[in-house]
Amino acid sequence: MSEEQSTLGEAARRFVEDFADNWHESGAGRMEGRVMGYLLITTSDHVSSAELSRELGIASGAVSMATRALGDQGYIRRRRLPGDRSHYFEAHEDIWGGFLTSERRWVFRMESVLDEANQQLDLEGAARRRVLIAREYMRWLGDYNQQMFRDWRAHLAAHTEALGEEPLDPADEETP
């Protein structure tokens, strides 16, 4: 798609690119970062694949891969509108709580992999110790992640009213 067709202003385009650069530095895909950045600042309730392609100047295949990854990680929702065959996307209001939830799922999976390695492999000495330490780290991180999520929701609830929004109930969303 051509960038000339985009209606995205220069400041918004800079934000999207800066957001994508930082997103990518965390180890995630840069295209996912561009899509996420755009969805954060759009004033629309939902955005079509075609709009993402046009506004970001990217191919529909790149939009598809990025939105699938973001959806799988819990950052965005895919919607269908009655009578419309297009896919529409919206960012979760609290994508950062979603980040913690996604991280928690990864931690549980990694803990399981390490636990299985400890049970299935005939490890001894330093190798066994490294696997056990890694497993314990994942257990600790999982517990801490739950506490961070609760703390985050309480913090957000305490500050949304100050931001001119309705107070947020910390229990509105599930704990990861």
Key traits:
single chain; 176 residues; mainly alpha; Arc Repressor Mutant, subunit A; 3-stranded antiparallel β-sheet; 6 helices; globular; HTH-GbsR_regulator; HTH_MarR-typ; transcription
How can the largest sheet be summarized? Answer: 3 strands, antiparallel
Output the helix-strand order. Answer: HHEHHEEHH
| Rg result | 20 Å
The gross shape turns out to be: globular
What's the pLDDT, averaged over the residues? 88
Secondary-structure-based class equals mainly alpha
User: In whole angstroms, how far apart are the ends?
Assistant: 38 Å
CATH class call of the largest domain: Mainly Alpha
| Uncertain residue segments | none
The number of helical runs is 6
CATH superfamily label of the largest domain: Winged helix-like DNA-binding domain superfamily/Winged helix DNA-binding domain
Helical amount among residues, as a percent range? Answer: 55-70%
Kindly give the count of domains: 2
How many beta strands in the DSSP annotation?
Answer: 3
CATH topology of the largest domain: Arc Repressor Mutant, subunit A
Task: State the strand order across the main sheet.
Answer: 1-3-2
Oligomerization: single chain
Pfam families: MarR_2
InterPro entries: HTH-GbsR_regulator (IPR052362), HTH_MarR-typ (IPR000835), WH-like_DNA-bd_sf (IPR036388), WH_DNA-bd_sf (IPR036390)
Domain HTH marR-type: 31-85
GO molecular function: DNA binding; DNA-binding transcription factor activity
